[in-house]
Specification:
By secondary structure, the protein is mainly α. The chain has 14 helices and four strands. Helix 6 runs antiparallel to helix 8 (185-201). The two termini are 13 Å apart.
Amino acid sequence: MSASLPGNRDLPASQYNLKSYWGRVRQSAELADPRTLFVSSAGLERAKSLVSSYKQGHVQSMTQELWRAKKIVDSTLHPDTGQPVFLPFRMSCFVISNLIVTAGMLTPGLKTTGTLLWQITNQSLNVAINSANANKSTPLPTSTLIKSYFLAVSASCSVALGLNSLVPRLKQVSPSTRTVLTRLVPFAAVASAGALNVFLMRGEEIRKGIDVFPSLNDEQKTQLAKDRMDIKSIGKSKKAATLAVSETALSRVLNATPIMVLPPLILVRLQRTEWLKARPRMVLPVNLGLILTTSIFALPLALAAFPQRQVIQAKKLEKEISDRVGEDAMVEFNRGI
């Protein structure tokens, strides 16, 4: 991200209003835009140079070219290391990376072995994405990473296999309803394991707290940039960390809901049509198309559910935080993704 490049002058957070939900949706769509994956090394260097020029005061105002450069930098570089995130694990590649895995989990008629293999593959991809985009200033211990991986895999596989064995025993419901419930089993497994994974991967934040900063207006930020001063942390808050991790876990469930619910329900209806009955080989491409279309629209909507920079009254956090800035003061923290 642009924060990792040299210069004391911060770029505007976005060209959209991040206080509104639809403004955050448009910003999230920018970060998830897969077209940034095709930017060459030379194009990335040009974008970095342009962003650095603004941060160092050589460029005075934002232009469309500079906004595009920021978009490339933000979607490619890790905010702590300043190095490109491995391409398959970037947020702009999220839809593509998850397409085949999601299609595998939603394949109709999966047996036990297939269910286990696809759930393991999904959790392996989740851990890889989480690790590649994790906060590098406080590295996650390898032991914690391994523990969270095996617990998430155990949770997803247990839920999937448990529900797969339970649904056929529901004699009170009609066969068509049982078919629908069977198709929704992957959603229950992915949602529960995804939320659990967030709490496991970011448990250290809840135990130790995260940095909380004063919420400054544009004039105050401009003055700090002129004085070449950084915004200093007020302190660490466990309550802020709990809120940040909880909102992130909920956003993962919100992201999984349309992707894992709509395509299987639509596919059930389509499989009853004469057209698809006569063309069984079209089930897979139709399934892929439904998942891809839903994913493209669902990801920005889920990412925008909560602000990236969360603003909250100091009195809602620990007493030592409110004592330093006053109970009515507004403070902010980075929620994470």
